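dumping this here so i dont lose it
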């Protein structure tokens, strides 16, 4: 009974944060009738009404742990989600993954066109930094600059974009577990780590334990993504299943086998919990999110 009550409480919390972020994103994005209307409609199509919102959830969990103001967390969480949404739009383009489905609906270049999708990604990325720069952080100019720096590093050539470049170069080549980790710490882990750090920075410096936690959760997210890509259906995932194998991309499943990848994900989950061990009950949401990332089915 206690376990089910805890699960229900966590589900309710996730639902509340997701609804809050959806509302904050809708307010932050340009209105659909504002010129250039087609671009703004496509931006809203890409960013709204879909996704697990794992990164905003992590931002709020870290922010709640340090006692950050919810309005500040809105700005930070929206910024992270806008960067993530832009990356999905660009990843789906014909020049990269050439995918036709994302979040259960046609990808942006399919619904609109390729040129619009390119501009959508550009505009979502710049809007993320605009939100962080414009939000008032009285007496915390240094923290605000650190937030901008953190997000830029996570999204750039030493983070997400660099990881994507390595991924493209590695297509058709076998990679070792060490090489996979080098790639995915950047491609996936960097932005997840930034989500946690931004939440903490909304109230002060990020505790080292949260950074250690974020590193493990970020990698675990990718390991589970690889497992689901190999085993789940497109209908369940809301995107094309099995595309990594078809495109010859190295994954944790191809490097370790499905069973080995599952064991590794569990090790990372244990490491995430261990990082939080000294932080007490206030870190419970972060623990629950680590479980959600590893045990999810979509």
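and the seq i came up w/
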């Amino acid at each position: 009974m206690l376990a089910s009550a805890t699960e229900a409480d966590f589900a309710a919390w996730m639902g509340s944060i997701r609804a809050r972020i959806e509302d904050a994103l809708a307010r932050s994005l340009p209105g659909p009738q504002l010129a250039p209307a087609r671009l703004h409609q496509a931006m809203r199509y890409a960013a709204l009404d879909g996704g697990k919102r794992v990164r905003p959830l992590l931002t709020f969990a870290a922010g709640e742990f340090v006692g950050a103001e919810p309005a500040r967390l809105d700005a930070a969480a929206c910024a992270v989600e806008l960067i993530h949404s832009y990356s999905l739009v660009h990843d789906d383009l014909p020049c990269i993954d050439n995918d036709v489905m994302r979040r259960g609906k046609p990808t942006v270049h399919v619904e609109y066109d390729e040129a619009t999708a390119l501009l959508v990604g550009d505009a979502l990325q710049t809007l993320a930094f605009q939100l962080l720069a414009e939000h008032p952080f009285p007496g915390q100019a240094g923290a605000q600059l650190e937030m901008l720096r953190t997000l830029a590093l996570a999204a750039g050539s030493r983070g997400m974009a660099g990881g994507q470049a390595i991924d493209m170069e590695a297509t058709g080549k076998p990679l070792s577990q060490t090489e996979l980790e080098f790639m995915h710490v950047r491609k996936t882990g960097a932005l997840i780590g930034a989500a946690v750090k931004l939440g903490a920075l909304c109230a002060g410096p990020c505790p080292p334990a949260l950074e250690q936690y974020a590193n493990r959760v970020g990698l675990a997210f990718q390991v589970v993504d690889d497992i689901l890509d190999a085993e789940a259906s497109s209908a369940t995932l809301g995107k094309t299943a099995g595309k990594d194998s078809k495109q010859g991309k190295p994954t944790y499943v191809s490097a370790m086998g499905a069973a080995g990848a599952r064991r590794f994900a569990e090790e990372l989950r244990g490491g995430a919990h261990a990082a939080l061990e000294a932080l007490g009950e206030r870190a419970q949401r972060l623990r629950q999110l680590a479980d959600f990332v590893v045990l999810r089915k979509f």
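The mean pLDDT is 93.
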